[in-house]
């Protein structure tokens, strides 16, 4: 699997870098926050992203997408991560579209995927029921009634759940929480009777939602009781693409910190001349380089549908969690007092890193999973 | 069939026909062959294997054929390594001739130096050692004091080197000497090659914490060095010496290949050792804390290997790997050291035996390898020096 980008991917990355810098700088995120934006992202900017084809990068051309693959999506996510760009790209195009692509029947794919690619449909995946990632943890019940599936229960931390038009609900048709068997994916309209959405603004100024479902009717996505087969694939796609975003964020944070070490003077010299800081910066550099490698390898594995996607996704997510945590904590520490201010942007990376860390599995989860996959 | 495919199949056939069975068994540290006039071949197959490989130049596969090397492209070299790995073939010979002075002579040597020295490295006839550190010049290497004076027809060398790995087995030494005591620290240094088969050169092994004596002190008392064995320009040896350090650091971190197996594979794999010594419950190592240690190390190792591969791919695709050497030296040696500490934790007191009667081969090898691994983050520029280099050269942080 190649660990370098090809020419097309490099061009896409450059274009994404320009776009994010010019159209979605960190100041936009701050403004959305301060203005208490209802959507939590700028709809005009989202329309431009759709125009660029980003909503359909991983959607096959047959369904109105670009079919440009996961590495392509990864480099876009990476650039979005650098500017902490607010958009429904991840929830809709990675998680939501992934569920439909891997779980939907032809009719569902034909109907929904082109709408994702054209930006008219926003999606969300309602999975978690506790504060910790638990892929098979759903207790929420689903029952078949006539031709439709009826779900009841509550979900937490549904990324962009406050704006989604349709929600993919992970519910249980048999067994108990923790069982891999018995999970069923149900697609519901967010406007359907019995759906109660409470927006939760998170520390990173991004949005999720707590959603109550009270006898909500929806349609089956994939096979009843076999939802985990779809979920496993989609969660790995999500983990790897989120790792790509984190890679962008941590590189930006690290570069800003190194730059600050060169210009901030104390005791009459740049603080970057102190060995206590130099060594920590050099150690972070090593972690950053290793992070780049695991993300590239994991993206290639997705593109080639190779056997080790699952272990590479855990390898990547665990490493990116730890490295983003380290780099953003050190970023604040090395900036000193100014790093604690809201006015300065470095603290935003730390807030984003922690939310990303807990989305789709923290490091303890992924190390355990890696060990299980490797047989120890 | 493409050229590379036919190279692969021919290589596979040749290895199958020529690699003795005993040379396909896992290699312990004491099995490693360094060559030179003092090498003892306890297993005669080792000599057979060396001669066969040297005959094709495959002991130094990437070196040009005019100097005895294999002349392989990097793709062919990769294929040879893959095919050797597939049958578990041992690297027939290794050492500083291959990893350090050879590549440096290819970069900086005169035609005469290359013709004289490289073929004897390839054949295993001559073994080299490194005269860099001195008692007063460790991390601050450029403060070295060994004098080298022009005596008209030849150079005369006086002084002392230390930590000269394998000097007691070596035939020649490449060394940094001071040729202009009045010049500033880095400007008065030259890089010379000295034949150790003269009375004016003496070697004294140093016993280490591992109980072994892989390092020596080397003394020069009016030693003679032929003028044609000055590498690079007079008083410009620091440039040559630094290049050699890059080759050395690459080889310490395992980057330069020469068999892609991990350095400690003969000690077993951590997960299997954990299961054997700690036990398992539902397929998991039966100690959450130790399991976490094993996982962190294994996952870091995998990320590190991927980064080595990425660095090679970037240099092949025309990008400049700006981060490589010091990162690999630092991270690789620290990772290796940590791996052995974890193995000690897993094996408990069975890992700390000293006498070879009461402990099995793996156990007593581990004790010594663990102690020896401590040198990995010291030799070839300590971890602290590598971090200084990254901070300065890569991140551009001020002095």
Low-confidence stretches of chain B: 255-261
Q: What is the N-to-C order of secondary-structure elements of chain A (H for helix, E for strand)?
A: HHHHHHEEEEEEEHEEHHHH
Query: What is the domain tally of chain B?
Result: 3
Q: Taking strands numbered 1, 2, ... along the chain, how are they ordered across the largest sheet of chain B? A: 1-4-5-8
What is the number of E strands of chain B?
Answer: 10
CATH class of the largest domain in chain A: Mainly Alpha
What would you call the shape of chain B?
globular
Overall structural domain count of chain A? 3
Q: Which two chains share the most extensive interface?
A: A-B, 38 and 43 residues
> Would you report the number of β strands of chain A?
9
Q: Helicity level of chain B, as a percent range?
A: 40-55%
Largest sheet of chain B: 4 strands, mixed
Which percent range describes the beta-strand content of chain B?
A: 5-15%
Number of helices of chain B: 11
Write the topology of this structure.
The complex is a heterodimer of chains A (about 375) and B (about 400).
Chain A: H1 7-23, H2 26-34, H3 43-51, H4 69-82, H5 89-103, H6 106-117, E1 123-126, E2 141-145, E3 148-155, E4 166-172, E5 183-189, E6 195-201, E7 207-221, H7 227-263, E8 265-266, E9 269-270, H8 275-303, H9 309-335, H10 346-358, H11 363-374
Parallel strand pairs in A: 1-4
Antiparallel strand pairs in A: 2-3, 3-7, 4-5, 5-7, 6-7, 8-9
Helix pairs in contact in A: 1-4, 4-7, 4-8, 5-6, 5-7, 7-8, 7-9, 7-10, 8-9, 9-10, 9-11
Chain B: H1 3-18, H2 44-55, H3 74-86, H4 96-108, H5 111-122, E1 128-131, E2 147-150, E3 154-162, E4 172-178, E5 189-195, E6 201-206, E7 215-226, E8 230-231, H6 237-252, H7 270-278, E9 280-281, E10 284-285, H8 288-316, H9 324-347, H10 361-373, H11 383-394
Helix pairs in contact in B: 1-3, 4-5, 4-6, 6-9, 7-9, 8-9, 9-10, 9-11
Brief sketch in words of this structure:
Chain A is of the alpha+beta class and 376 residues long.
């Amino acid at each position: 699997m190649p660990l370098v980008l090809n020419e097309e991917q490099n061009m896409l990355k450059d274009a994404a870098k320009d776009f994010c810098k010019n159209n979605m700088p960190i100041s936009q995120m701050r403004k959305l926050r301060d203005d208490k934006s209802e959507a939590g992202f700028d709809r005009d900017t989202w329309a431009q992203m759709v125009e660029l084809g980003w909503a359909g990068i991983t959607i096959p051309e047959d369904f109105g997408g670009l079919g440009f693959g996961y590495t392509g999506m990864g480099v876009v996510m990476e650039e979005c991560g650098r500017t902490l760009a607010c958009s429904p790209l991840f929830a809709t195009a990675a998680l939501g579209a992934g569920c439909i692509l891997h779980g939907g029947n032809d009719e569902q794919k034909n109907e929904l995927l082109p709408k994702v690619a054209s930006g008219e449909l926003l999606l969300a995946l309602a999975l978690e029921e506790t504060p910790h990632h638990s892929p098979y943890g759903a207790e929420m019940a689903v029952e078949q009634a006539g031709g439709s599936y009826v779900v009841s229960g509550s979900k937490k931390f549904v990324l962009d759940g406050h704006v989604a038009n349709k929600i993919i609900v992970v519910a249980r048709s048999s067994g108990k929480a923790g069982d891999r068997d018995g999970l069923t994916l149900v697609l519901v309209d967010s406007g359907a009777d019995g759906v109660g959405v409470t927006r939760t603004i998170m520390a990173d100024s991004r949005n999720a939602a707590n959603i109550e479902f009270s006898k909500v009717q929806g349609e089956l996505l994939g096979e009843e009781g076999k939802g985990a087969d779809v979920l496993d694939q989609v969660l790995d796609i999500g983990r790897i693409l989120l790792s790509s975003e984190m890679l962008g964020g941590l590189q930006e944070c690290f570069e800003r910190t190194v730059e600050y070490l060169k210009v901030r003077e104390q005791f009459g010299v740049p603080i970057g001349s102190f060995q206590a800081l130099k060594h920590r910066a050099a150690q972070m550099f090593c972690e950053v380089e290793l992070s780049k490698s695991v993300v590239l390898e994991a993206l290639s594995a997705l593109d080639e549908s190779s056997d080790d996607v699952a272990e590479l996704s855990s390898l990547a997510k665990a490493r990116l969690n730890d490295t983003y945590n380290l780099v953003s904590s050190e970023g604040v520490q090395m900036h000193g007092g100014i790093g604690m201010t809201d006015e300065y942007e470095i603290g935003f990376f730390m807030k984003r890193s922690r939310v990303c860390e807990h989305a789709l599995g923290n490091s303890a989860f992924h190390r355990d999973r890696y060990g299980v996959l490797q047989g120890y | 069939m493409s050229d590379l495919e036919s190279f692969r199949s021919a290589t596979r056939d040749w290895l199958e026909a020529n690699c003795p069975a005993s040379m396909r068994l896992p290699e312990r540290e004491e099995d490693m062959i360094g060559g030179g006039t003092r090498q003892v071949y306890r297993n005669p197959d080792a000599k057979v294997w060396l001669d066969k490989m040297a005959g094709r130049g495959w002991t130094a596969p990437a070196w040009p054929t005019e100097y005895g090397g294999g002349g392989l492209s990097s793709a062919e070299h990769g294929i040879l390594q893959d095919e050797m790995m597939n049958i578990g073939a041992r690297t027939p010979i290794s050492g500083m001739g291959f990893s350090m002075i050879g590549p440096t002579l290819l970069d900086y040597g005169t035609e005469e130096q290359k013709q004289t020295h490289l073929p004897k490295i390839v054949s295993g006839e001559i073994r080299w050692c490194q005269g860099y550190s001195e008692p007063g010049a460790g991390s601050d290497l450029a403060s070295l004091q060994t004098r080298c004076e022009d005596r008209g027809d030849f150079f005369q060398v006086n002084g002392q080197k230390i930590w000269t790995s394998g000097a007691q087995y070596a035939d020649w030494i490449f060394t940094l000497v001071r040729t202009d005591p009045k010049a500033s620290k880095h400007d008065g240094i030259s890089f010379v090659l000295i034949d150790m088969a003269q009375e004016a050169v003496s070697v004294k092994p140093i016993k280490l914490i591992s109980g072994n004596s892989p390092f020596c002190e080397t003394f020069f008392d009016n030693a003679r060095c032929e003028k044609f064995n000055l590498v690079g320009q007079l008083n410009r040896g620091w440039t040559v010496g630094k290049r050699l350090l890059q080759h050395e650091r690459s080889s310490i971190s395992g980057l330069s290949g020469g068999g892609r197996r991990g350095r400690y594979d003969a000690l077993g794999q951590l997960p299997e050792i954990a299961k054997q010594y700690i036990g398992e419950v539902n397929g998991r190592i039966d100690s959450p804390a130790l399991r976490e240690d094993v996982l962190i190390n294994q996952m870091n190792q995998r990320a590190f290997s991927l980064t080595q591969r990425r660095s090679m791919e970037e240099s092949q695709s025309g990008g400049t790997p700006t981060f490589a050497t010091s990162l690999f030296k630092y991270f690789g040696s620290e990772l290796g050291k940590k791996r052995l500490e974890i193995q000690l934790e897993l094996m408990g007191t069975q890992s700390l035996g000293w006498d070879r009667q009461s402990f099995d081969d793996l156990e007593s090898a581990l004790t010594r390898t663990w102690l020896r691994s401590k040198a990995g983050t010291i030799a070839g520029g300590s971890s602290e020096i590598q971090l200084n280099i990254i901070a300065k050269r890569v991140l551009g942080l001020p002095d």
